Amino acid sequence: MTTAALVALVAGLAAGVVSMVGGIDQPGRGGARVRYLNVPTFAVAATVFGIVAYPIAKYTSLGTTATILIAGAAGVAAGFAMFGVIAAWAVPSAAKEVVDERYTQQGQFGRITRAIDAADGGEIEFSADGKVQRVAARSLDDAPIEVGTEIVIERIEGGVAFVERWTKIARQLELPT
After folding, report:
1. Helices of type H across the chain
2. Which of 28, 126, 139, 146 has the fewest CB within 10 Å, making it most exposed?
3. Are both 90 and 127 inside the same structural domain?
């Protein structure tokens, strides 16, 4: 039984990491409705089951059935508590989040199609949602950028993309260009 408890504990912790990285926001799953069985709920239930079952199995004389019932009840209670936290706090908080439209294309790669100069700006081309888009552009530091140069969008404000050379960003990140 101790092995099963450790497996449940490790599975719960792994599912917890998956839920932290991936979140619970799944498009097309009914909007603000939360399913009882989701990754964070499973993670908490399995982790608590393992945490409760291991010491009972290792340090008491209770049988397997009693251990499973006690640890299972604790796991189910923890799962319901997690569901309550998600439904009462996490989902409503996420629904209130306002997306700043200026930054929806931040980090998007593009290419200069009309040279950028400090006085008039220029134009870039990039792909978004499967479509090629062209927008007016300025460099973040008002430095000129030649046609064909690869850039990264910082923001799009008032129909103008503010961009920086990819080579400059790669250098700052110490990536090969």
Report:
1. 2-22, 39-59, 64-85, 91-96, 166-173
2. 28
3. no
